[in-house]
Every structure is written in structure tokens, then in C-alpha cells.
Specification:
The chain is α/β, with parallel strands linked by helices and 583 residues long. Helix content is 27%, strand content 21%. The longest helix is centred in the N-terminal third of the chain and has 21 residues, at 76-96.
Length: 583
């Protein structure tokens, strides 16, 4: 376990925000869950003020939505009320900088398939409405058998709803299972299932509730002071030590003595507890690898001439830690492994479900380098791969997905210094969730004026007479354009057309690069260089520059795939590329 933030549920006095956060800090707690379970006790200005105070003191905030706000409701009017309460909870959470909003999915009325469809419809409804808040909606495991939301149900829901995340209530699972969470083995099996079913974005951190309780055949009956029941934090801490992710544990006990006893049990059995505003690392065993400029050392176990990294049953054999990767007397493979290990909490949620293209340098960055899409032979069995059709379409390529700290350590072990992640996530590879604008230049970095301004398109140090001759020569040239068979829609919903001597060709497009800008024109005139444009691999046409572009200089033609031909550097400005796939 990398880090554990332990906190309490509820503000001592919602009218005294400074005093409430001060009591949290005095207790040594690193988190606090604001309870709106019965009513909204804070308004917008107070929520903002609470967030400012908590951020200053280093306290991590979360929000518990009202109990009545359930997702399984069948009546449309009640569902509207419930979703409105969840929306307002997310709104207040965003104002106070909370990391998650916890909700109870609801009662399991009807057959399982119908209830599941109801919850999916409710999440589809509220998802776009809370997207701008940037606060995930936590689905809490239920405490009674009549309620919906077992871990398997939540795993299915979060796969199709990225804004949702699991919330594990250990007391609820203990009650529903009839008291089976009373051993280290039971907690270890639970963590193994969680690590298998959920992505890194849900595990850094995993939000949890912990309370001792009394239960019956139908589930939880009531909370009891810690020690009177059979649920122990020591078992949790001992089992979590085998897994590398982060936990935020909220105690819902009503007694301060119970909070203190739970935290002491966690600390006694090795949980890396963080205080308010602290960042901690787990203790490093003998043989670990670290560097002074990195906060945490990599826990490695010596095994003969090599070392082994263990993460929740996954093992990585690490060799040649001192091998230079970035040049002689520079950073080594061990440094690369330590770097991946330290940035894993930030990197893994981003890489979640994204296929990777690896750039490997077995002999260092000054040796031979190669790109690799196919998962290499000899990869551990636990390395996750997904089949993606190849460009030729004849077979599938098994792309690697980094879904754990062990997978990052393995990538560093095989000297993958660059991991090019797709802009889309599996299995929706045709739906990128962000775009990349590449402003890199191929020539010297010189100031460039914006296209359409009165200034020249790029700075030029040549004599004025030379520039006049160059511009005159360029005006006489025909712009070089390529067409693509891809059907592209205009903002008005009409396809781009390509006008030739015989008329427009619907469904095709012309692309003209003028002064470093890419524009698609609705009509282009065919040149004599391409008498039959429909069959030419490269089509040449004249094209007027876009209205906002004053320069008429065009670059070499594009290939049919849209890439510039070899040896054709982009002139007159930076190119804008929209990346929709990996590599």
C-alpha cells in the first residue's frame, strides 16, 4: 500500500467551519467527509470557504449525498428529485474542492436486469450534467441484501460511465457476507478482486468506509463502538500491504475513541498513514532502489543476481539496475524504474484502458531503438493486452495496457523509455477523449505572426529584394493539394466536394497547406498535372488560400493518407495536427 489517508465523517459544527477543520487537524486526520445525508447544511459561499480552509490545512474533503437520492427509483418524478439532489451535491463538492461524492445506488426492487437498466439510465441522465464539475460520483457498496450495488454490479457500471467510481464500505460487505471479513485472507481476497475489476483511476485512491457494526440475516443493523464487533482494521492493514495503490479510509463511527482506536490499529500493522498535508511512502525493505531526488524508494527483493518487484501477486524480475540508459554517467535503468514507480499515482489514471506503443532502447538512447505495438514474447501472463485490428486488417495486434504499478516497472525493465498512449480508451477506440495540438517546428524557432494579421507569416532575415523575388516566385506556383476518399462533413452538414473539369466529385475533399496552415476548401480546380484525379495517387490542384490566410505559399503535396511526403518540411509556420489514435 502506497499511502493511507484516514479521516472522519461529519463536521463538528457546520456553522463553525474553522473550528471543525481545526478539530480534524488536531486529531491527526488527513481527510473529512462532509455529510449531507439528511439535509444540505452548507450553501455555496460556505462550501467555497470550507474548501479554502481545508486546502490550507492539507485536509482531503469528500461529500456524502443524501440517503434518499437513489438511482434505482422507477417513478420519473421522484427520479428527477433524486438526480437533482445528486447534482447539487456535486455542485457543492466542486466548490469546496472535494475529491468524490458518495451515494447509495438504492433498493433492489424487481428483477436484477430491470434494476440494472434503471441505474444505467439514471447514470446516463446525470453524467452529462455533472461532467463540468470534475467530481467523480462514488457508488457505495450496500449494507443490506435488499439493496442494489454489489461490487460486481458497480464494476459493470463504471466501465461504461467514466465519471463513476467504487466506494468500498467494509462494514457493509462484512454484514452482507454474514461476518466473513474477519481475517487477513478475506481482506486479501477482496483487494485482489478490486485490483482485477477496477482501473487505476479508481484505485488512486480507492475511497473506503470503515466502521464496526452489528448485523443480522438481512444485513447491517447498527454501528457499534470499535472493538464490540468482529471487524478489525489490523486485518485490513495486513492485507493491503501486498497491493500497491492508495486508500482513503473514512470512519463513520460516532465516538471519538473509536476513531482513535481504528487509526492506531492501522498504524500498528504497518499502514503508511499520512497526516494533514503529508505525503508518505511505505517502508523500504532491504535491497530497495531509490534516489535522493525521488520521494519513494522502489521495494525490491534480492533473488540471486536479480531483484523482484511484487505488487498484489504480480512479480517483475528486474535486472541490470546500473545499466546506463540515457548515456554514460547518466541515468540508469534503475533510475527509470524508480521514476515510473514514483509517478505511478498520477500516470496510471491517465493510462487506464489506453493501448500503448512502446519505443524500446535496449542499449540506451544512443543505441538501436525500435517501436513495438505487439506485446513482446516473454511478457508476464498478468500483463494486460487488448486485440486491435492491424492497419492491413489481416490480423489483430495485441497492444499492452498499463493498469498497475507492476506493469510500469515491467515497461521500464524492457527499456521502454517512451510509451505512446492512444487518445481513446478500450473498447471505444474510435472515440478519442482528447486532442493533441503539435506546435513543434522542423526549422529554427522564430517568431510567427498569426495568420490573417498585417504582420508577415514568419520572420525572415533575408534581404528585402530576395524576399520580394521569393514571394513573386511563389505566387506563380500552383498550390499542391491532395484529396482523400474519407467523407468529411462541413459545419452545415454538407460533404466537401472537389470541383474538376468534369464537375464536382462528391464525398471527396481537397486539402491545401498555405503558410503552415491546413485548410479544406469546398472546391478546387484540377491542374494539368493530374488529368485523371480520381485515379491518381497524388493529385495536384490549384487552390485559393483560406480567407483568414494572407500568405499563398504552399508546401509539398500530401500523400493519400494525409501525411507530408518524405523530405518535405513544413514552411512558413507550425503545423496543426489532430491526433485520433495511438503511436
Amino acid at each position: 500500500m502506497r499511502i493511507v489517508r484516514f479521516g472522519v465523517a461529519g463536521l463538528k459544527d457546520p456553522k463553525d467551519l474553522e473550528g471543525s477543520i481545526a478539530r480534524v487537524v488536531e486529531g491527526g486526520y488527513a481527510a473529512c467527509e462532509v455529510q449531507f445525508v439528511k439535509e444540505f447544511t452548507l450553501k455555496e459561499p460556505e462550501a467555497e470557504r470550507l474548501g479554502t480552509i481545508a486546502a490550507r490545512e492539507g485536509v482531503r474533503l469528500s461529500v456524502h449525498a443524501p440517503y434518499f437520492a437513489q438511482l434505482t427509483t422507477a417513478e420519473p418524478e421522484r427520479l428527477t428529485l433524486h438526480l437533482g439532489a445528486l447534482h447539487h451535491s456535486c455542485h457543492l463538492a466542486a466548490l469546496m474542492g472535494a475529491k468524490i461524492v458518495v451515494c447509495h445506488p438504492g433498493t433492489n426492487t424487481g428483477d436484477a436486469a430491470t434494476v440494472h437498466r434503471r441505474v444505467v439510465a439514471a447514470l446516463d441522465n446525470i453524467g452529462p450534467r455533472i461532467a463540468n464539475f470534475g467530481v467523480p460520483l462514488g457508488l457505495e457498496t450496500p449494507g443490506r441484501k435488499s439493496q442494489f450495488g454489489a461490487l460486481g454490479d458497480i464494476a459493470l457500471l463504471v466501465r461504461d460511465h467514466p465519471f463513476a467510481t467504487p466506494v468500498v464500505d467494509f462494514a457493509h460487505i462484512h454484514a452482507v457476507s454474514g461476518g466473513q471479513m474477519s481475517s487477513v485472507e478475506a481482506f486479501r481476497a477482496l483487494f485482489a478482486y478490486i485490483a482485477q475489476q477496477f482501473s487505476p483511476q479508481h484505485l488512486w485512491p480507492l475511497h473506503c468506509h470503515f466502521t464496526d457494526n452489528r448485523f443480522g440475516p438481512a444485513g447491517e443493523l447498527t454501528h457499534v463502538p470499535y472493538g464490540e464487533g468482529t471487524l478489525r482494521a489490523s486485518n485490513l492493514a495486513a492485507a493491503a500491504a501486498d497491493f500497491d495503490f492508495a486508500l482513503t479510509i473514512i470512519s463513520e463511527e460516532r465516538w471519538e475513541e473509536s476513531h482513535r482506536a481504528i487509526m492506531e490499529d492501522l498504524a500498528t500493522f504497518g499502514a503508511p498513514l499520512a497526516g494533514p498535508g503529508e505525503q508518505v511512502c511505505p517502508p523500504a525493505p532491504h535491497g530497495s532502489y531509490g534516489r535522493p531526488w525521488l520521494p519513494c524508494t522502489v521495494p525490491l527483493e534480492p533473488r540471486g543476481p536479480a531483484h523482484v518487484f511484487v505488487d498484489g501477486g504480480r512479480e517483475v524480475r528486474v535486472t541490470n539496475l546500473d545499466k546506463p540508459i540515457f548515456g554514460e554517467d547518466s541515468y540508469t535503468k534503475g533510475d527509470l524504474i524508480a521514476w515510473y514507480y514514483n509517478v505511478a499515482p498520477m500516470l496510471l489514471p491517465y493510462l487506464s484502458d489506453r493501448p500503448l506503443v512502446m519505443q524500446r532502447v535496449p542499449d540506451g538512447i544512443y543505441g538501436e531503438a525500435f517501436y513495438e505495438k505487439q506485446a513482446p514474447k516473454g511478457a508476464p501472463e498478468w500483463v494486460r493486452t487488448v486485440p486491435v485490428p492491424s492497419d492491413a486488417g489481416r490480423k489483430n495486434v495485441d497492444f499492452v495496457i498499463a493498469d498497475s504499478v507492476a506493469s510500469l516497472v515491467w515497461l521500464a525493465q524492457i527499456a521502454s523509455v517512451e510509451c505512446h498512449a492512444w487518445t481513446s480508451r478500450w473498447p471505444k477506440l474510435d472515440e478519442p477523449d482528447y486532442a493533441v495540438i503539435d506546435l513543434a517546428r522542423s526549422g529554427p524557432a522564430t517568431p510567427t505572426a498569426r495568420c490573417g494579421s498585417s504582420a508577415p507569416a514568419s520572420a525572415d532575415s533575408s534581404p528585402p529584394s530576395t524576399r520580394r523575388r521569393r514571394r513573386s516566385s511563389r505566387r506563380s506556383r500552383s498550390a499542391r493539394v491532395t484529396s482523400s476518399s474519407t467523407r468529411t462533413r462541413t459545419p452545415r452538414g454538407r460533404p466537401w466536394s472537389r470541383r474538376t473539369r468534369s464537375g464536382p466529385i462528391p464525398g471527396r475533399r481537397c486539402r491545401c497547406r498555405c503558410a503552415g496552415r491546413s485548410s479544406i476548401r469546398s472546391s478546387c480546380r484540377s491542374s494539368s498535372r493530374s488529368p485523371r484525379p480520381s485515379t491518381a495517387s497524388r493529385r495536384w490542384a490549384t487552390c485559393s488560400p483560406p480567407p483568414a490566410c494572407t500568405a499563398r505559399t504552399c508546401t509539398r503535396p500530401l500523400t493519400s493518407s494525409g501525411a507530408r511526403s518524405a523530405g518535405a518540411p513544413l514552411r512558413g509556420g507550425a503545423a496543426l495536427r489532430s491526433v485520433s489514435g495511438g503511436g
